[in-house]
Amino acid sequence: MDRREFLHATGSAAAVGLSGRPGLAQTLPEAGALHRLLEDTPRERVAAELAGLIRGGLDHRRALTALAVAASRRVRPFPHVGFKYHTVLALQSVHLTALNLAGRERWLPLFWALDYFKRAQDSERRQSGWTMGPAPAPVSGTVEAARKRLIDALDRWDLEAVDPAILDFARLATPEQLSELLFRYGIRDLRAIGHKVIAVQNVHRLLPIVGPENAPPVLRSLAAALQNHDYDPNPATGDLPSDRTWREFQAMLGGIPKSWKQGRRDDAARNELVRTLRKTSELDAGRAVIDLLQRGVSAGSIWEALFATAAELVLTRPTVVPVHAQTSANAFHYVFRHARTETTQLLALLQSAAFMSAFRRGVGDTKPDLRIDELEPLAVSGTGTDALREAFSELPHDPASGARKALHYLQRGGSADRLVAGARRHLARNGQGSHDYKFTEAALENHREMAPTAWRDRILAASMAYFTGPAPAPSPVAQEALELLD
Fold this sequence. Notes:
This protein is an all-alpha fold. It has four domains: about 5-125, no CATH class; about 145-225; about 240-370, no CATH class; about 385-465. It has helices at about 5-10, 30-40, 45-55, 60-75, 85-90, 90-100, 110-125, 145-155, 160-170, 175-185, 195-210, 215-225, 240-250, 265-275, 280-295, 300-315, 320-340, 340-365, 385-395, 400-410, 415-430, 435-450, 455-465, 475-485. Helix 19 runs antiparallel to helix 20 (about 400-410). The radius of gyration is 23 Å and the shape is globular. The chain starts with a helix and ends with a helix.
């Protein structure tokens, strides 16, 4: 379907405001013909088609909705919850970046996401030819019965049964009931380097945007992702390492005092946990967290240690796998903040600690000068904007120096808000990978959620190691989008 067919399907050219007048976007369909346009238009033409609709009045929410539906329908979370599936996983980050930009630049993340979708769609077509089938017929009954069917399917890791079950429960449950259940199953195992909890976070953010009428394919895609157990045998039939912390931590919850939410801030305990996480196992990482809660240390201090560990791992090795320490910590913290039950909150905290230990083992020992608590600032020659520009200029060739110069900038009173804005602008204009978006928005949200301490800026500075730096010209996708929207 090209744009002319799309206009015919939606009634008329005026339906998308080809006069160019703003305020006509409300006449466009929510997804419908638009998501089919994104699915069916070849990669080399789809950006121009989208730009024409934007000039005619298409708003960002509807464009994002159509892309979320198209990506969910055309790219599956198999064999991995990652790789090509980032076309779905990165959408929340694309949305957050766009919200903080203005003018034409606000559309750049969406054009990047659209191009990534077309590449992922082509990859899926070559690998499997898969597309999402028709929605299963609804099963009548109560919300309690639908919940039991969904839990049974999830517990049995039954991919076929979970498809109708997620739709039935979503149709009958409140948004809060649906979210709480998805939160628990998003954090239940240590597979996929954190992509499952990221997938749940992503959908939780997208559902209010896409609306209930467009939610089914997004939810079906998520449910399938939660059932992916890599190349392991069915986890319901055995005791596998990736599932062990989930079972063990549930048994340990009774040892956590009921007053754990009234814990005190304790920087010494935070530092102690950072040191512990450099050398401990997944289960012992959770035990260390429980020990701190028993000693009255606040969950906030513990999360700060987890964010610091994640930032240190990225600073040590600014490559794709360590980046997931930061993105998964962000997603676990998101679940912690939005879950309604203390059980889910505590399990998110403990599983995040276990993941930090797993990532640490994969990265190896940290060089002493790159440890988060020993990172030294590197002087910059200018002040203010000049100092910040100098820090960013290091990123393409020396990320550690960029981080140390950012620390110098922040410690001398430089504006963290300016650094954050610069990170997003470089990302939108120069970012090319899904992890550029996922990592940047995760790191920025972690910074925003932390208490205003010296470590907050230290962690932000360390995150510079994977931020997108300046480039002589925008990325090819961004350049094309800017020209199309001009």
